[in-house]
Design brief:
Number of domains: 2
CATH topology of the largest domain: BirA Bifunctional Protein, domain 2
Structural class: alpha+beta
Order of helices and strands: HHHHHEEHHEHEEHEEEHEHH
Distance between the termini: 80 Å
CATH superfamily of the largest domain: Bira Bifunctional Protein, Domain 2
Radius of gyration: 39 Å
Number of strands: 9
Largest sheet: 7 strands, mixed
Strand order of the largest sheet: 1-4-5-9-8-7-6
Strand content: 15-25%
Helix content: 40-55%
Bound molecules: 3,4-dihydroxyphenylalanine
């Protein structure tokens, strides 16, 4: 039995892989293995012989299984090391798709960067606002036709989902005296029928600059700089007289560029902040920080979905809200 024991341990040592080690294990511990057979044979031994034999057998089984486990570990480590040695950890990996930014988010970021360079900072306001911030303060009284046009979603308590981001102009001016230079991207809501060019929730960007001696020239220069950054240096802007209650004079900005197939596109509304807006703020603030005799300002606002549609060449605005990855992936890194 001593020889057998010796052989069994030697067999473990010479096993060169896990398959060979399994064979060795079966050979000794399997049903008809040497150790198992000897255990069986114990029954035939006399009472006197049994304890000594039993002890020997147990010892063998223990040293054998311990050696088996140790060798198993070594073989596994060797296999790991071999796999590792064949790997070149300096090679670039195969990156998996981690997700990307929505085209609207990418465009927003890009526009924010452009205005940052002109010293504008980001401002925010709530999506659920009150009639004063959305209409009254913006010189749009209850009987004003614009209020009909912008039929929105009202909450039972009289608050509403803002119909434009112009509310943030008011909120920014409530919070701080001039000079002020802010942009405010955010959601706007209208009770429009949803179709290829309308959503009931969409995204706008508001721009406001207030201070001493701000002129229409500043408005034109800023808008032109912005659209040229966006569409290329040869982009032209046309300021077409229009009406907005909160600006006087007011214009719509048409933009033409080779990247826009040379067609005039109406892209924004703008104007010089109406003195009535400043006076509404003074009343609310209880001071004369926005005295229209002292300061002036310009504002403009535009829809972001429209710009994304132009830049990506899509013709149905609904694609931006459907979350179809086949669509989104195409534009995720476009801007
Ligand atoms: N709020 C306007 C709209 O939703 C867009 C707009 C026009 C914003 C003129 C302005 C502005 O700041 O001066 O149609």
């Amino acid at each position: 039995m001593e020889q057998q024991q010796y052989d069994s341990l030697a067999a473990i040592q010479t096993a060169s892989d896990t398959a060979a080690l399994k064979e060795v294990r079966l050979h000794y511990l399997g049903k008809s293995g040497a150790i198992s057979c000897l255990s069986e044979r114990m029954r035939t031994l006399s009472k006197e012989e049994r304890p000594a034999m039993g002890q020997l057998l147990n010892q063998w089984r223990n040293t054998f299984t311990e050696a088996l486990e140790a060798k198993g570990k070594i073989l596994l480590d060797q296999a790991d090391a071999a796999t590792f040695a064949s790997l070149d950890a300096t090679l670039p990996g195969t990156a998996s798709w981690q997700g990307g930014m929505h085209p609207l988010t990418l465009l927003t970021d890009r526009i924010v960067q452009i205005f940052r360079r002109l010293g504008f900072t980001m401002a925010e306001g709530p999506d659920i606002d009150d009639e004063w911030h959305c209409f009254d303060s913006l010189n749009t009284p209850l009987d004003h036709p614009a209020r009909q046009e912008q039929d929105t979603f009202y909450l039972p308590d009289g608050r509403l989902l803002r119909t434009h981001t112009s509310t943030v102009q008011i909120r920014a001016m409530e919070q701080a005296p001039p000079p002020l230079r802010i942009i405010a991207p955010g959601a706007a809501y209208r009770r429009d029928e949803i179709d290829a060019t309308h959503l009931s929730q969409f995204t706008q960007m508001e721009v406001l600059c207030v201070g001493k001696g701000i002129t229409l020239g500043d408005l034109k220069g800023t808008a032109e700089f912005f659209f040229r950054e966006l569409f290329g240096t040869e982009t032209e802007c046309r300021f077409r007289p229009h009406f907005f209650p909160f600006t006087e004079p007011s214009y719509e900005i048409d933009v033409r560029s080779s990247t826009l197939s040379h067609q005039w596109l109406e892209l924004a509304g703008c104007g010089m902040v109406d003195p009535a807006v400043f006076e509404a703020l003074n009343k609310k603030r209880g001071d004369r920080a926005y005295d229209p005799e002292e300061i002036s300002g310009f504002a403009f606002g535009f829809g972001l979905e429209r710009l994304v549609m132009i830049l990506t060449g899509i013709s149905d605005i609904r694609m931006l809200t459907e979350n179809d990855l086949r669509f989104l992936k195409q534009f995720a890194r476009e801007f």
